[in-house]
Design a protein that fits this description.
This protein folds into 2 domains: 273 residues, Rossmann fold, CATH 3.40.50; 185 residues, Rossmann fold. It is built from 15 helices and 18 strands. The strands form 3 sheets. A 9-stranded mixed sheet has the order 3-4-5-2-1-6-7-11-12, with helices on both faces. Helix 4 links the parallel strand 6 and strand 7. Helix 1 packs across helix 15 and helix 8 packs across helix 11. The longest helix is centred in the first third of the chain and has 19 residues. The chain is globular, with a radius of gyration of 23 Å.
């Protein structure tokens, strides 16, 4: 029997510990899917202050306690702890870096929890985390076949291992996922001193007179994976999209493999986060979860109103401003209701409060990124409205489809083979897709969805069409396993 491939998956966030961006969903569902494929995969991430060690059963590892992590000429202590990530069929070991100064004492992940401003020392924090991964592998004397890392926050793992231990990790292959090219982690070149690396390597870390973590990760990766094909092609062809990083892709294995979703966690029949699980009656499922959603938004239940769920995140500056500028036109029809979950900076928070007060019949807002509330939003909404042009993974749209919340979505890198457009002749479509740059396109999409809501036979048919979409990881996980095998065989 062939020895399973050993993989270390390094990420800045993952369920069940923390989920701020779509990466948190992807990281968890990915490692579980790879375990299904027989890959011996382990996950590594930081322990932020909002992560409960007791609830998540995070335990000390004696020989990984109070490790001295070099940061230039100084040292900071890290204790790397262990936990078990579980699904109904699989278990994955997680290593979790704890450090008071950089992670544990802070309630935020990437941003200050009150101001929602990025922590100014994020580059130093994630440099420390990456170095803790390196030191842990040294103490464990574990040399994975593949080290798989994500975006700029974890990109220094590859150069650290390749430069510091070239002989030990000579056969190890390094795979980089670029989920969002904006997540580069850029800082002053002076921070290079804290890498502890010789000056001869510094040019591999510099881009446009800055220290750029993602550039370093690209330089030392054996393969680079994108989940969105058109996004990948545009980055390769358009220098402005990557800030010039595309010039470093030459000679690399560049591949497109779509994401899947966790069909245990995002399964209407089993979801413990929603008020009512799906049994045999989908209309009953939507009705009861819609009633529960009204309770979350503290609104009197009216099942006759079409409900649009929406999420605005602090990263989506353009979408937030677009919403603020165009809200009155978007919701001209008073016989509709928008439930908005927002995690935004104070300047937008005050604006959204004023809008909700002015348009209290049609707009309800809560300021939260609570995962259970998000599940309920998808389960209870008739439609999911998205203006996002930041996240090419489109994970929220996939979640909405799983729960029969019909997408009314911007076409920003939307895979229309997965998110199928509705038209009157279509027997498979269920989505209302618009170009956000064309305001009339947005208004038309909303009006079309309202018209469909009043036509119950067609509305129910569209919801039925969503049921065929599983977004299963299995075929995509096989592609990742094939990539690992190909790299390890030197092809």
């Amino acid at each position: 029997m062939a020895k399973p491939i050993n993989v270390l998956y390094v990420t800045s966030e993952s369920l069940p510990y923390v989920r701020i961006q779509s990466l948190g969903d992807i990281s968890y569902s990915y490692v579980m899917a790879m375990r299904e494929q027989g890959v011996d995969i382990r996950l590594f991430m930081p322990r932020y202050g909002i992560v409960s060690e007791r609830r998540q059963q995070i335990h000390f590892i004696k020989r990984l306690t109070d490790m001295q992590i070099p940061m230039g000429k100084q040292f900071s202590l890290a204790s790397v702890k262990s936990s078990s990530m579980n699904s109904p069929r699989n278990k994955v070991q997680a290593y979790i870096t704890t450090n008071d100064e950089y992670f544990t004492k802070r309630k935020g992940v990437y941003r200050d929890i009150k101001t929602l401003e990025l922590y100014p020392d994020n580059p130093e924090r994630y440099m420390f985390f990456c170095r803790s991964v390196v030191e842990t592998l040294g103490i464990l004397e574990w040399i994975p076949d593949v080290v798989h890392f994500n975006d700029g926050e974890t990109a220094l793992v590859a150069p650290f291992l390749k430069i510091l231990f070239p002989e030990k990790f000579e056969k190890t292959k390094f795979v980089l996922n670029i989920h969002n090219i904006e997540e580069q982690v850029i800082t002053s070149k002076s921070l290079y001193e804290k890498t502890g690396l010789k000056k001869e390597f510094k040019e591999m870390f510099y881009h446009k007179d800055k220290l750029n973590f993602l550039k370093a990760g690209i330089s030392y990766a054996d393969a680079i994976v994108f989940s969105n094909k058109q996004y990948m092609l545009d980055i390769l062809e358009k220098s402005e999209m990557s800030g010039g990083l595309n010039e470093y892709f030459e000679g690399k294995e560049i591949i497109h493999i779509p994401n899947g979703i966790d069909n245990y966690g995002w399964e209407p029949k089993k979801d413990k986060k929603i008020a009512h699980k799906l049994d045999y009656d989908f209309e009953d499922f939507k009705y009861n979860n819609k009633a529960a959603l009204f309770q979350i938004f503290e609104t009197d239940f009216d099942p006759s109103l079409p409900v649009y769920g929406m999420i605005l995140d602090v990263n989506e500056y353009e979408a937030i401003q677009y919403f603020v500028d165009n809200f009155p036109e978007m919701l001209k029809n008073e016989n509709m209701l928008l439930f908005l979950m927002a995690r935004v900076e104070s300047r937008y928070k005050n604006t959204l409060k004023l809008l909700a007060k002015k348009y209290k019949k049609s707009l309800k807002v809560i300021f939260s990124n609570d995962l259970a509330a998000e599940h309920q939003l998808f389960a209870g909404s008739d439609f999911y409205l998205s203006l996002d042009n930041h996240d090419p993974s489109n994970m929220n749209t996939y979640f909405a489809i799983r729960y029969g919340s019909l997408p009314v979505v911007n076409d920003f890198y939307l895979d229309k083979t997965l998110v199928k457009q509705y038209d009157e002749k279509s027997t498979e479509g269920y989505s209302f897709i618009f170009k956000r740059s064309d305001k009339q396109s947005l208004i038309s999409a909303i009006n079309s969805s309202l018209k469909i809501f009043d036509d119950k036979d067609t509305f129910n048919q569209l919801i039925e069409n969503t049921h065929s979409q599983k977004f299963d990881w299995a075929p995509n996980a096989k592609e990742y396993k094939n990539l690992y095998t190909k790299l390890l065989k030197g092809k």
